Amino acid sequence: xxxxxxxxxxxQPELYGFLIELSVNNNRDWFAENKxxxxxxxxxxxxxxxxxxxxxxxxxxxxxxxDARSLFRIYRDVRFGKDKRPYKTHLAAHFRHVxxxxxxxxxxxxxIEPGQVIAGGGIWRPDSDALVRIRKRIAKHPDxxxxxxxSPAFKRDFVLQGDSLKRPPRGFDPEHECIEDLxxxxxxxxxxxxxxxxxxxxxxxxxxxxxxRMAEFNHFLCKALGVPF
Length: 229
Hints:
The protein is of the alpha+beta class and about 230 residues long. The chain has a single domain, classed as BirA Bifunctional Protein, domain 2 (2-Layer Sandwich), CATH 3.30.930. It has helices spanning about 15-25, 30-35, 35-60, 130-140, 140-150, 150-155, 180, 195-200, 205-215, 215-225; strands at about 90-95, 105-115, 115-125, 160, 185-195. Strand 2 (about 105-115) and strand 3 (about 115-125) form a beta hairpin. Helix 4 (about 130-140) crosses helix 10. The longest helix has 26 residues, at about 35-60. It is globular and about 60 Å long. Residues about 1-10 have low confidence and may be disordered.
C-alpha cells in the first residue's frame, strides 16, 4: 500500500490494517513478504510522528528526547517466554529522560494497537536504588504527591497502573498515609485514547497535550531521582 505523508499527522488507516493482518499472520514468512507494508504503514509514520513531536516535547521539558531511538522495535524477544510469536502487534514509542539508559527511567509513552491506544508516562520497573528514592520522596512529601495524583484534573484523565507489593516495603511505616503507593513497584500513569484520534491531523498536538498534563507527575519522579526536569 502506498504511503503519503500528511503535513501534521503521520498516521493513516493503513496502520491499523497492517497491525490487524500481522496479528493474524504473526510469522516470519508473512512479515518478510510484507516488510514494505510495515515500513510504509507503521515504521515511517511513527518516525514522522516522533520528528513532529520533538519540538513539542522540548517545550514541556528539554530533558526528554524524541528521536529515532524512541521507537520500539517490532521484533519480540522470544528467548525466555512461552509465547514464541516473533512480532509485536502494536506500535510503540518511549520518550525517556536523556539520563535514562533504558525503559527503567522516567518518560512519556505511546502505544498504538487496534482497540487499545494508550498514552502514558512515569517509570516502569525502576531499579532498587531508584525505587527506594521514589518511595522516600513520597513518604517525605505526601502532600506534594497527593496534590498531583489525587487532583481532580489528574484523576479525570489518568489511572495509576503497575504491580505492587503485597506487604509494606521494608524500612517504611506500615501506617503511613501513602502506604498503598509506597507498595508500588511501578509508577505509571495512563490514559486511553480512541483509535480515531490517531488518524486525526492534530494527533501530535492531542498527544502533546496529554504529556503536558502528565508533566507534574514526571517532574515529581525526576526530583525523587535527582535528575533535572
